[in-house]
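Researcher: Sit down with what I've pasted below and flag anything odd:
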Amino acid sequence: MKRKIVALILIAALAAGGFAAYKTNFFGFNTVTSSDSSEVYVMPLSDIMGSSSSYSTNVFMGIVEGQETTSVTKSSERELDKLLVSEGDVVTVGTPLFSYKSDSLEAENVQYGFDIETANININEYNRTIEKLTSDYAKIKGQSDEDKNNREDLANQIESLKTDIAIAENSISSTNAKIDENKKKIANSTVTSTVDGVITKIADDTNPYTSDGSFITILASKEMRVKGQINEQNVWAINIDEPVTLRSRVDKSKTWSGKITKIDTETKQESDSNSYDGSSEDNSTKYPFYVTLDNSDGLMMGQHLYIELGQTDAPEMDFSDGTYIYEYYISYDDDGNPFVWADKNGHLEKKSIELGEYYEEQMVYAISGIDKDTKIAYPMEDFTEGMGTVSGIEGE
């Protein structure tokens, strides 16, 4: 089936999604059941068919970004010397990001050198004393109690000095390890980037550290993707794996292809000037979605693009002339007569329609029996006449 048809199916799916979202209280409505007191979401046929409706919008604004974010932390034990990059800078592997001060480390190593020298002098002195005590021990030949006490005293002094030598040697070893560690820190006083990308955040007093302690955040550019925004009213108009066309805002003849790979309804975003969804509801909640590119040749990090649903050159149908309806909204009674579920004074009713010409490419019928202002619902199995209807979003 042609991609154009797939895109049109999404519009029908939007209405179904709107009803499902309403039943699950997504938009803040009361939960409904399949009874006469249930409320069903309806909208004007003109909105469904794309005449001045935010639900029919299929163009969004997008920005090229990296697939992954790399965080660089700063040691709390070391003092920052110089910051070598700014937010927005493009970096490559090996680009210096910042440096630590190393004066104190160098001073420490000088002091450590003195400590080792002193320890070696003490060890030499201990060894000379041990040699003398050992000689004195050898001179005692008698077996009197005094001789025995003298030998025992000398032996204890010798063992104590050997212990002092062991302690001094251990101190030298530990101090050498500290010197080596400081030398490594001095050699690595300049922290460099491990990825290609763009600096997106540097923590300071006005832009504090993130919860993970990141000092510098780099948006990696090894693999690019496009981030778009969609509002709560038409979030159901897009689907995972939906093909899209990315178009340059500067040269509209330049396009790239891709598909939607993530719709992040868990993350809410503020409205901003980078979003375009055709809606007048500037205060509606917006969610990010992401497009994986088939090929990113010619794109740059931070570049703004148009995101167009579908990848087809099939002509768009003009629904402004006459009354049309997607076939997914049409139900049939037991005798095969077509009807739609329509709103009548706040309640659902079966409204008979007559089918005219069928447009296979768009999967649309020309109809009579209702007009563009008739509010209808996407048909569901548990609909019954008399169920309550609602249109619009609570709180708008």
